[in-house]
Amino acid sequence: MSRNRSVLGDFLRGLGGATFFLITILRALPGALLRPRLILQQLYYVGVMSLIIIVISGTFVGWILALQGFRTLTTFGATSALGVFVAATVIREMAPVVTALLFAGRAGSALAAEIGLMKATDQLSGMEMMAVDPIKRVIAPRFIAVLISLPLLTAIFAVMAIGWAGGHLIGVDLLGVDQGTYWGQIHAQIKLHDVIESIIKSACFGVVIGWISVYQGYFAAPTSEGVSRATTSTVVMSSLTVVGLDFVLTAFMFR
Amino acid sequence: MISPDSDIHVRVRGLRFSFGSRVIYDGVDLDIARGKITAILGPSGTGKTTLLRLIGGQWRPKSGTIEVDGVNVNKLSRNQLFELRKRMSLLFQSGALLTDLTVFENVAFPLREHTDLPEAMIRDLVLMNLEAVGLRGARDLYPEQISGGMSRRVAMARAIALEPALIMFDEPFTGQDPISMGVLIRLVSSLNKAQGLTSIIVSHDVKEVLSISDYAYVISGGKVLDHGTPEAIRASRSEYAQQFLHGRPDGPVPFHYKSAKSYSDDLLEPAK
Ligand SMILES: Nc1ncnc2c1ncn2[C@@H]1O[C@H](COP(=O)(O)OP(=O)(O)OP(=O)(O)O)[C@@H](O)[C@H]1O
Ligand SMILES: [Mg+2]
After folding, report:
1. Could you tell me the distance, in angstroms and rounded to a whole number, from the CA of residue A8 to the centre of ligand 1?
2. Which tens digit of pLDDT belongs to each residue from B32-88?
3. What is the rounded distance in angstroms from the CA atom of residue A56 to the CA atom of residue A97?
4. Segments making up each domain of chain A, as ranges
5. Which of A108, A121, B14, B196 lies 20 to 30 A from A49 at CA?
């Protein structure tokens, strides 16, 4: 019992510390926005470097959904709804969640490792002694880059999954669904609120992944083991938080 | 400690500090005279690096005060502390170069962060500082492409780039061959003479450091064991100072990290 309580206590203390850290980052954001070059650099490392994996996964997810959707819809004689099936699943769920999970593994882990190593090699305290605030110079630009990249990558994922290389290729070109029907149904059925739901989700996931990865890196023990633990925790915690949060957000926006 | 107040750049009084239960400082008073070179000598692991970080305000003492330019560094807000740090430099033992920047950009870093100098001026300043430490030719290399001794010299060029009023060197001569060591010693000494820089040097190269210092402190076991001019330290009859100067393993300064058990007890204890 007392053990459980101390685990809970540790968790709450950790959460308190992480919240305080998030507030510190948020307060550094306006200053960081004045230095777009630092952000662009991070956008390259965080966003552009994740592009390939997102494009490939998006395409595959589109193919898979088209195949599965066709099988199910055939039994109802409703294959004309294939476009909507693929688009709705991708826009509302698959694009934000899968992109976030892949992003946490690709970019979040890299961020945590990089920041953790900078700490372990005195680079962060070196900056502090040079009167340069590492929160402003190192953490904030990376956090902003995550916030910007994730929604963009999510959009790219969705386009790949639904578009001509993804679901369209399997559904229209291979399984013979009429092209006009595929797009027509999507235009008719997918509403603005579906897109907004997608954007809200990916924005929330961006905050979560950015927050977790810079926190894990910044507070990593300054050893090789500490850095490796920070990387692992980043992926595990981000993934669990993303799926949990996805359920909460979906329930909230259910209609 | 006879100089008038204004001539004291860093004043430490009653400093106590510990890591957990391990006491590092147990009541230490130090005065660092303005415009002078002060050497801090002491065995490895005694807390010299810790002292420099305390002066830089990175860590907080358990009790006691540390004043730089008459202000208590632990009473400052983060912004005030950063303002103060623009006037002081700490040369890290490890160099602490930014690994994603070239040697040139590392030295330019404080200039870019804290000044609006035009690019041409930054270039000149960086090249001058790199030339002073003999590494102008290495400007395009990344930190992982240079040796430990070279890193420390780059860090030195970076530390002097903003022309601070106070520089703390943490073992700047470690890993230097006799030639670059001679150059660095002359550099430290000339910076001090030409710009009236206050320098604190932590080093194990006792002879070399004493040769350019105006004053020296010998610390061990959380206390100041001896202090005075280099001549006084050399002539000191204090067993501590003598042991340290001559590098004898036996004497009042313990070579061994404190252990709970004696060596023989430790060896004889059955393995678990
Ligand atoms: N982050 C830390 N956590 C716990 N203990 C520490 C930490 N940093 C240093 N210490 C302990 O504090 C003591 C003083 O360390 P410090 O680095 O100041 O020694 P030093 O005098 O600079 O030694 P050296 O000459 O070898 O560089 C050491 O015994 C070390 O065990
Ligand atoms: Mg040290």
Report:
1. 33
2. 999 999 999 988 888 999 999 999 999 999 999 999 998 999 999 999 999 999 999
3. 15
4. 2-252
5. A121
Q: Is the CB of B192 under 6 A from ligand 1?
A: no
Provide the 10 A C-beta neighbour count for residue B137.
10
Task: For A132-166, give one letter per residue: b (16+ CB within 10 A) or e.
Answer: bbbbbbbbbbbbbbbbbbbbbbbbbbbbbbbeebb
- Measure the CA angle with vertex A239, ends A134 and A220; round to 5°: 35
The 8-class DSSP code of residue B59 comes to S
Contact A141, A41 (CB under 8 A): yes
Tell how strand B198-202 and strand B37-41 pair up.
parallel
Judged by DSSP in three states, B214 sits in coil
pLDDT at B190: 86
Q: What is the pTM of this model?
A: 0.87
**Interface mutation vs chain B, best among A38, A123, A130, most B CBs within 10 Å:** A130
Banded pLDDT at A1 (limits 50, 70, 90): very low
Of the bound ligands, which one is closest to the alpha carbon of residue B43? 1
Name the residue facing B92 among A118, A122, A131 (closest C-beta). Answer: A122
At B171-214, the pLDDT tens digits run: 988 888 888 888 889 888 988 888 889 999 998 888 889 999 99
pLDDT score of A3: 57
Of B53, B86, B97, Cβ closest to residue A131: B86
pLDDT (mean) for B26-31 = 92
All domains in chain B, ordered by first residue: 1-87+213-254 (3.40.50.300)
ipTM, two decimals: 0.83
Judge whether B123 is closer than 8 Å to chain A, CB to CB.
Answer: no
Residues on chain B touching A125 (C-beta within 8 angstroms): 53, 58, 92, 96
Evaluate if residue B1 carries a pLDDT over 60. Answer: no
Q: Which residues contact B160 (CB under 8 A, 6 or more apart)?
A: B89, B129, B132, B167, B191
Distance A174 CA to ligand 2 centre (A): 69
Phi, psi of A171, deg, nearest 5: -65, -50
**Mean pLDDT, to the nearest integer, of A92-100?**
96
Identify the nearest ligand to the CA of A221 by its number: 1
Residue pair A104/A209 in contact by the 8 Å Cβ criterion: yes
- Contact criterion met (CB < 8 Å) for B99 and A128: no
Model pLDDT, residue A4: 62
* Selected residue with higher pLDDT from A196 and B250: A196
